[in-house]
């Protein structure tokens, strides 16, 4: 994953929390019902997901190192999805208040983690460490703030965050493929080890957005054997844990 220190990563997470809170403050009845940047989800759905994730992540941090870790979501992903649908029906004012409460609890849990607890196991992805979960928290906060489409976009993703996504989301590259990313003005990044090679060029944040399944703001150009081609396929959302 990224080479950020624990302090640097924590600082970036706290900054992302602040940005999300500022963005949420603009949500009214009309805005909550409007589509988010995620197909099929309104902004209320995104907020409901952030609420559930924040509460789940806070519990994992508070119980890190337990002999029998809690699952990330009680009842698994099906229960998580059902909860999102129900929570998204709340009045926007109450929903924002609920998400604010869950973000505050998450921040408290983050601040309560000591350096010695960085490697403790959690129930995140069945044994992922506190460090793995911190990275997941960073991803969720930054990406979903952009998904709200309320003035924040993938263009606001800082270079360190894009670099983290290039590393963490390499698992989305199909086994037979190799994708060479060429961010404008930066060194190439090779993802995957397959024989079929595609070169993709664009800004770092547009390449990261494409890899994360989001709509790039500008062009992402793909070439194979020196000829232009369609953007290649990606596998299901998957994240490489540090222990992998």
List keywords for this structure.
244 residues; alpha+beta; five-stranded mixed β-sheet; 8 helices
Structural description of this entry:
This protein is an alpha+beta fold and 244 residues long. The chain is built from eight helices and five strands.
Layout of helices and strands, plus pairs?
Layout (H helix, E strand, L loop, with lengths): L5 H19 L4 H5 L9 H20 L13 H12 L4 H20 L18 H18 L11 H10 L8 E7 L5 E3 L4 E7 L1 H8 L9 E4 L2 E3 L15
Parallel strand pairs: 1-3
Antiparallel strand pairs: 1-2, 3-4, 4-5
Mean pLDDT score, rounded?
95
**How many H/I helices?**
8
The strand count comes to 5
Percent of residues in beta strands: 5-15%
Care to give the gist of this entry?
The protein is α+β, with helices and mostly antiparallel strands and 244 residues long. The protein has eight helices and five strands, in the order H-H-H-H-H-H-H-E-E-E-H-E-E. Helix 3 crosses helix 4 and helix 7 packs parallel to helix 8.
């Amino acid at each position: 994953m990224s080479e950020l220190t624990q302090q640097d990563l924590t600082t970036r997470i706290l900054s992302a929390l602040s940005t999300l809170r500022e963005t949420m403050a603009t949500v009214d009845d009309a805005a909550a019902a409007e589509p988010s940047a995620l197909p099929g989800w309104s902004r209320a759905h995104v907020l409901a997901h952030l609420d559930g994730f924040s509460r789940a992540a806070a519990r994992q941090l508070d119980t890190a190192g337990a002999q029998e870790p809690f699952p990330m979501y009680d009842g698994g992903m099906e229960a998580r999805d059902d909860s999102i649908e129900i929570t998204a029906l709340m009045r926007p004012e109450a929903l924002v208040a609920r998400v604010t409460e869950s973000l505050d609890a998450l921040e408290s849990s983050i601040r309560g983690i000591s350096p010695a607890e960085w490697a403790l196991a959690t129930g995140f992805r069945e044994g992922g460490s506190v460090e793995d979960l911190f990275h997941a928290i960073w991803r969720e906060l930054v990406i979903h703030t952009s998904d709200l489409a309320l003035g924040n976009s993938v263009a606001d993703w800082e270079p360190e965050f894009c670099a983290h996504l290039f590393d963490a989301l390499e698992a989305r590259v199909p086994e037979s493929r190799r994708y060479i990313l060429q961010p404008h003005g930066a060194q190439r990044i090779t993802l995957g080890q397959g024989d079929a090679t595609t070169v993709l060029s664009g800004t770092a944040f547009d390449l990261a957005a494409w890899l994360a399944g989001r709509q790039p703001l500008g062009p992402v150009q793909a070439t194979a054997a020196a000829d232009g081609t369609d953007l290649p396929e990606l596998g299901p959302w998957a994240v490489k844990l540090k222990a992998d």
